[in-house]
Records
---
Amino acid sequence: MRKPIVGISYKTYINSIQETFKMLDQIVRLTGTEKKIEQVIFPSIGTLYPAAQVLKGSNIALGAQNISPEKNGPFTGELSIESVKEIGGRYVEIGHAERKTIFKESQEMINKKTRLTLEEGLFPFLCIGEEEQENNEDLLYNTFNFQILSALNGIHIELIKNVIIAYEPFWAIGKSFAADPEYIHKSHDIIRNVLADLYGKEISKQIRIIYGGSVSKVSTPFIINNNNVDGLFIGRFGHNPKNYNEILRIVMSIKC
Ligand SMILES: O=C(CO)COP(=O)(O)O
């Protein structure tokens, strides 16, 4: 069975090392021994190394919000996967809506980063999602199919199961409320079908699909209550460690 997984991104909201220490210390005390669920924290990039020190020895993994498309070389301003690995990072977030819209990240770039992450033995949180709410299921299928196929193009089939698909509809990020649970469930079903059509049923069953976009403790029980939703990718409404802990407990009570 797929192990539930919850990620939380601090984006560029929590940038002080002291504040990061304080928050992660609380989180480690609240949830750091849980084994039935995977937890990943994606701290603000300047706090990645100190965050790694706090998470070390707990059951909470470290993730990088972005990496350079190649291990080393002339990529000014980028974070190398070599550094992520050295400090114990296990996950890499790739293709977030903000990187696509603000930093103009292309599908080709997303493909390079995803491939590098998998070949280096780490686990990508591959973000996909439509820009506008879309009720036509065929159009949604085509959008997901294109994004997944181009991101995973040329990657060895053996590695595909290590991908975590983070379904984050652009239009639901940074809002007051998450997308409607029924809409989320339908999208996850479509993504599972896309994966089965591309890589076969067996592999599709092993890939975790999680939802992100204005998730809160209020919406969590409704979103998570579906077989094809394997976890959450939390933003602002989990930045308070107590809220994060509550969200995690709800997910565990339903999934574990
Ligand atoms: O983008 C997200 C996680 O990657 C979600 O962020 P918000 O929950 O703040 O909308």
---
Amino acid sequence: MKLLLDAGNSRIKWQLRDRADIVCSGVDVAETAGLFREMDDRLWTQVDFVAICTVRSESAREALVRAIKLHTQVPVRFFWTEPRFGDLVCAYENPSAMGADRWHAMVAAWEVFKGACVVIDAGSAITVDWIDASGRHEGGYILPGKNLMLDALSQKTARVLFQREQTLASVSPGQTTGECVLHGVNWLLRALAIELGRKTTVPVMVTGGDGPYIKKALSESADPALPVRLSPDLVLDGLAQVANC
Ligand SMILES: Nc1ncnc2c1ncn2[C@@H]1O[C@H](COP(=O)(O)OP(=O)(O)O)[C@@H](O)[C@H]1O
Ligand SMILES: CC(C)(COP(=O)(O)O)[C@@H](O)C(=O)NCCC(=O)O
Ligand SMILES: [K+]
């Protein structure tokens, strides 16, 4: 069985897969021993390969390897952005500079649609990437995600004081600082989805922690005929494909 990891800037998501079956899974913020609390000794003996997609720092990458080596000595391999995978071709002149999460998300989306599509990953950062009908990556955008926007406001202003409430989905004009900030960020995410829905004629694949919010806004605003698919494990799906498991 293959252990697959997607180490994003906020959270590390992992799954133990037996081909397409997800046998065990977990998520945590840090690469500590507790990351794999859902695994037991019996499952660890069944792991024969570890595949990792990371956008974290080099020191975090090394810490992750140490955390894995506490449990298993099987090969651990990192997968980075490649110039191409099958028909999918990276737009970057220097593909290794593009986040490996973006690449593996695109690999998985291309496998699903096998045609022109947009991939939006609403994680710590929000990334939007376009693929044309031939598999050529046309390019994309990188924007701050919801938490990063809230962090920027609380750290770079003196008097914008608010509590975080992740569940608040309203976009009505706020009447307290907290409402103004939280509704404002929701409004921006919604505006992004509406703009995407208005401009896009090709299927949209959505992933990331704030993916459900983007998907909902897209579904409410775009042409009902526009295919919009939410796939929370998109990066792991792409990684599984590239790692050939
Ligand atoms: N339990 C949660 N912990 C952290 N972020 C969450 C959680 N639930 C939703 N989110 C949202 O998800 C975003 C992070 O998404 P995620 O896909 O985990 O990021 P990354 O891939 O960068 O690690 C945050 O901006 C936040 O708004
Ligand atoms: C843009 C990202 C920060 C997104 O990461 P995430 O929000 O999923 O943690 C990551 O893909 C990254 O570090 N990219 C490197 C720069 C680039 O893609 O051009
Ligand atoms: K992201």
---
Amino acid sequence: MAASSPTETLNPPSTLTNHLQTNGQDSSDKPTQQPSNIQSADLIEPSQKRKRVDTPEDNPEGPKSSLHPLWKTSLCSYFRRSNGSCSHGESCRYAHGEGELRQRADGTWDPTSERAKEMLKTENGERIEGTGESVLRENDEVMMTEAFAEESCSEPALAKCLVNLPMKWSSDNLRSFLGEQGILYKSAKKKKGMIVGFVSFENAEQVKSGVEEMDGKFVGNKKLKVADVTPRPFEKKNKVPLPPAYGTQQNLKPATASDSADVSESLSGFEDDDPTNDSLMPGSSDLKGRSVRNAVTPLAHLPYVDQLEHKKNTLVQMLKKLTRNARKACPNGVSLPEWILKSREIGGLPCNLEGILESPQVNGYRNKCEFSVGYSLQGKPTVGFLLGNFREGVTAVEEPVNCPNVSGIACKYAAIFQEFLQHSGLPIWNRLNNTGFWRQLTVREGRAPAKGTGIESTRADTVEVLLMVQVCTKGFDDELTNSELQRMAEAFSVGASADSSSLPLTALVLQDHQGISNAAPADCPLHSLPIPKAKSDSILEAANDVVEARIHDYISNLRFSISPTAFFQVNTLAAEKLYALAGDWASLGPDTLLFDICCGTGTIGLTLAHRVGMVVGIEMNASAVSDALRNAQINGIKNCRFICAKAEDVMGSLLKEYLNGPQKQDEISDSSGKIDEEIAKAEENDSSENTPGPEVSSGLELEYGERVLEFSDNGNQEFENQLQKRGTSESGNTPMHQFKNVVAIVDPPRVGLHPTVSNRELYIMRGVFYIQNFGFHIYT
Ligand SMILES: C[S@@+](CC[C@H](N)C(=O)[O-])C[C@H]1O[C@@H](n2cnc3c(N)ncnc32)[C@H](O)[C@@H]1O
């Protein structure tokens, strides 16, 4: 069971990345371009739609079969459009709603149905960059906003976009492919990491034969689609106009020769682009009806109860698939596990599904939003969310208007930053050629404690705001950079105080990231920026260093201190409900040892600490561990220990230690005096400028109430040695504290946790696990 975030799609994603998904309920959102393999009733021409009488082509088996072979395998568009009425009534061959829909003979579902979309999600899920959530799109839509064909292709009719190419292909691969197919063309371009490529032709004849040859051809197991290419609205002229932020390019100190190229070259995403290229996109009609609201909250058009129903159905499908796959994976001759056998009694589910917990707050509940910086479809520097998936060539960013999950405060800061960028002398990050300065704005909000009992606090209680601006300073002149950053800080300060409700602004942090994707590693340098006083030139002394740049939030009346990049549940109030339920399910008590696996800032373990004998949190991010230690201290919680390591590296040893090995009870609970030292040590190791991440993550164990063990990045063996050494030399003959109930909670599951722990299988799902004999058993 999961606390539900309204209007958001199910968890992966984080990774969820950037992906466009239509809401799947309203056919008006569908693009005009459809893949050739779609056979929805919606695709039949209006004139044909009334002909619901079976034809010989429709039903090759003729009168032999009482039901049409495609009976109810497509959704009825009349039924959908006319709000549930269809003149054919029950005799209609098409499904009246998802409930009636049948699977097709080839195992697929009507591609316009929710089931098909959800299956696609499961297979191709990616995180939305802006939200860290997973949304997926149907496979029949493509947008391109910043790809370039050759100069001579100013005639868009001579350019085509190929969709579904292997992501790893470069332009060379595409050219070889076209050569092998005997396709005549003028130029071919493809960027690694995308599934789209561009081909331009010499003449209409080449276009025609090229399209015939390519459309529907399989590359691997993917069917190629050919889409039209049209210039973006603001780039219809032959020359690409200068976006405002590039107008001062001459001010910049070039890092490489290519950085000093002219503007149109710097906008190009392809390694061999001509500087005078036009910007093209496939099928501008695809953009109709697209909105950032659909991209970020694809279920927002549904009432909340329907969103929950939709999510539950999705979960049911996924869980059934899990059972099916597990059954298939069981080798012949090996008896099926009990849960698979029992699944038959509960409709193929691997466990009972209780349902979804409602979020206490439905709108504006996110306490963290990551806004991308980029150009809108109209070419305007924009701070918001990507309108689609980079993988599919979409780089357009639109303002976060009407996104119900985004708070008003976050929207306001995005608008302030956007206004500042319109006049900045530094360029916006270009995702295609990986150049530019301004990349991302993260807004994190901290709440005041809940006021009294029985009154649920809301995000309106926001009293702290931390802004983290991601830039890439490489190659830019220090003086210009510094003055722009100062102007930016002023803009935030002035904008915050000018707001009618005077927005809180607690800390301003700069994240200097040079990587290709905006997902910065844990050790990415952070710098605190002073926040100037509004309407004055004086500079405040606040937020002098990154350690102090933090916000606070409350879960179950515990105060949590959160550093700029540490994970914290984005829906605080829903998290509170979720954790309490997890605690109930786990039948916690004084004899319970609770493992909080992937504990982040320690929220799960610390909120449940008063219900157990001991909490052991395991977390690979040193900064989060440092926060967890600090949070234990702030809340006076002593029966806990946090270990900075990859869970898969240490779980086996920890289980041995706690289930088999000797351990002194006083070692567990005595925390006096050591916590400050440990936090200091953690922060020292977390100091992003001088500490490499991996060594810290796997090499440092931070224990609340015990000494800090340090060892090299040598993984499990060394960790085990240390534990063994401690077990014999420090614990002496004192009888170990026996925990009768050992429980692990993990949220969310991680791929890294899947492999074996001490040669036992580890089944990880979001949830609560009983640990018995070194094995993990799903507790439902
Ligand atoms: C989404 S956060 C959840 C944190 C916490 N459970 C909560 O609900 O607030 C996931 C955390 O898992 C950590 N993590 C990811 N993979 C891990 C691994 N293999 N071992 C330990 N920690 C891991 C990440 O650093 C991150 O802090």
